[in-house]
Amino acid sequence: MPILTIKNCLDPVLRKKSQLIENIDDELVQLSQDMMETTLEARGAGLAANQVGLPYSLFVVDLGLEKGTHELVTLVNPVITAMEGEEIAEEGCLSIPEVYAQVKRAKQIEIKGIDLDGNEVRYEAEGYLARAFQHEMDHLEGSLFWDNLGKIKRDLLKRKFKKKLKEKEE
Ligand SMILES: [Zn+2]
Description:
alpha+beta; Peptide Deformylase; five-stranded antiparallel sheet; two-stranded antiparallel ribbon; 3 helices; 7 strands; 31% strand; binds zinc ion
């Protein structure tokens, strides 16, 4: 199965709000499998469909994050149904490689969605996994983690990203 190309934050698809998925067909199942492989290969915590160029309401996330294992699941049309507490911790993004920042997130969340069999699923998460869910939800809204920061900090990170991109191209 192919490893997909991850779009970086300069691609306009990252700014698109995702469309709800009406049909879970073989193509979508294949996409999700490819996204899981791509996440593992990139050593990511999760990946949203628009990060591989498809603005669908779907992401994969690694439930094994806090256990030091891998357990990737797919959520279709996810919605965060509860949020509690606050926590600031370091966050990065596969679409903004090598750039990290301290981001404030809810400490605990509940999220609902549909799995690839069409069944309703619900997860409760805290800590790093709760962060990963919130990060992927942001992607589905066309947001990036640095949108949660102030402008000065965000501009600084953008410059850092562009500099790293340029270094790679040289
Ligand atoms: Zn991301």
